Amino acid sequence: MKELGSGQFGVVQLGKWRSQHKVAIKTIREGAMSEEDFIEEAKIMT
């Protein structure tokens, strides 16, 4: 996967879904945010 960027909370990489759709894959560093912040971030992405 190709890294697109990184920041305070983790890394964003370029990936493929079902071998054809380009998607951004966001990984969060362990301990980088609270559980509540994680849930709020997940709500934004859905």
UniProtKB/TrEMBL annotation:
Q: Does the keyword ATP-binding apply?
A: yes
Note the Pfam families from the entry: PK_Tyr_Ser-Thr
**SUPFAM superfamilies linked to this entry:** Protein kinase-like (PK-like)
Keywords from the UniProt entry: ATP-binding, Lipoprotein, Myristate, Nucleotide-binding
Q: Which InterPro entries match?
A: Kinase-like_dom_sf, Non-receptor_tyrosine_kinases, Prot_kinase_dom, Protein_kinase_ATP_BS, Ser-Thr/Tyr_kinase_cat_dom
Q: Where is the Protein kinase domain?
A: 1-46
GO MF annotation, one: protein kinase activity
Q: Does the keyword Cytoplasm apply?
A: no
List residues binding ATP. Answer: 26
Gene3D superfamilies xref list: Phosphorylase Kinase, domain 1
Protein name per its UniProtKB record: Protein kinase domain-containing protein
State the species of origin.
Cyprinus carpio (Common carp)
